Amino acid sequence: MGYFNKISALVKAAAGLLIPTLCLAQVQNIVVTSAASFEVGLPAPGSIGTIFCTGLNISGLVVATSTPLPYTLAGIAVTIGGAPAPLFAVAELAGYQQINLQVPSGAQPIAGMGGSYQVLIQQNLTQGTATATGAVPVTPGDFFRLPGAQYGIFQHSADYSLVTTDSPAAPGEILVTYLTGVGSPLAFSIPPGQPAPLSPVDTVAQLNTGTVIDTYNVVVNGTPIGSVGDPNAILFLGLAPGFVGVFQINFALPLGLSPGDVQITLRQTTYDAMFGTVNTYNSSPVLLPVQ
């Protein structure tokens, strides 16, 4: 379990990028995305989202300096589905603003709109609203990526160094990776804006009601390598200790892979015995260099 103390500085820096940048003036041009890939859509409650907009009055970058995360930065506050959102940071960019936030667990969808949420941004007397479409269950999660690349953030579990083309993963090796937007229930509840504890670790609780069963698989080049609890596949899936809204997967890379870039996807499969249906949801893929 020592690896829970060794989350890399690079991943911490990546999480820092999630820190918001806001928008106002009549706040307009509001776009809600995942903070990991910037794909449009509101990630699952408890995960990290990014808002891009115009109209906010921000000087440079304003970052939350402690946890629990604040609900106001630079006079800016965000409400999603009627619930206040903890803020990582807000910033002024080249002609627009960005806000990085944790999607509140109490967010309620708009009645009759199939998973859409009202987003309200306020700064003093200025405000703007938008409707954001939830990404779940369209995707089971969203991998963090290296800046400007399709490579995911993966670490060698032996020393927590970054997997790169110069330091590729080896077939059979145990790797660590990070994502946000996982929507399945957790083992216990963490208050909004609070980092996940080191002990006990907060794991994704695999749903099994007897009639509905949810499973997660890491998929390598289109082939699932096993589900949570399989000692030859996913060793851990849950919140990354010390982080707010960041999920961690520890998994064993299969043997027999050819050298080069492989495609990694997270897959969620839901089986409903009552109706005899199986639904499969895949994350957007990321690349992993293998030796």
- Proportion of β residues? 35-45%
Categorize the overall geometry: globular
Question: Helix/strand/pairing class, anyone?
Answer: mainly beta
Calculate Rg over CA atoms.
Answer: 19 Å
Structure, described:
The chain is globular and about 60 Å long. The chain is mainly beta and 291 residues long. The chain has a five-stranded antiparallel β-sheet with strand order 1-2-7-6-3, with no helix packed on it. Strands 10, 11, 12, 15 and 16 form a five-stranded antiparallel β-sheet that branches. The chain is built from one helix and 19 strands.
List the defining traits of the structure above:
19 strands, 5-stranded antiparallel β-sheet, 291 residues, mainly beta, 3% helix
Topology at a glance:
Elements: H1 9-17, E1 28-34, E2 48-54, E3 61-63, E4 76-80, E5 83-84, E6 87-92, E7 97-102, E8 116-123, E9 126-133, E10 142-143, E11 154-156, E12 174-180, E13 212-220, E14 223-227, E15 234-239, E16 247-252, E17 260-272, E18 277-282, E19 286-290
Short description:
With 291 residues, this protein is mainly beta. The chain has one helix and 19 strands.
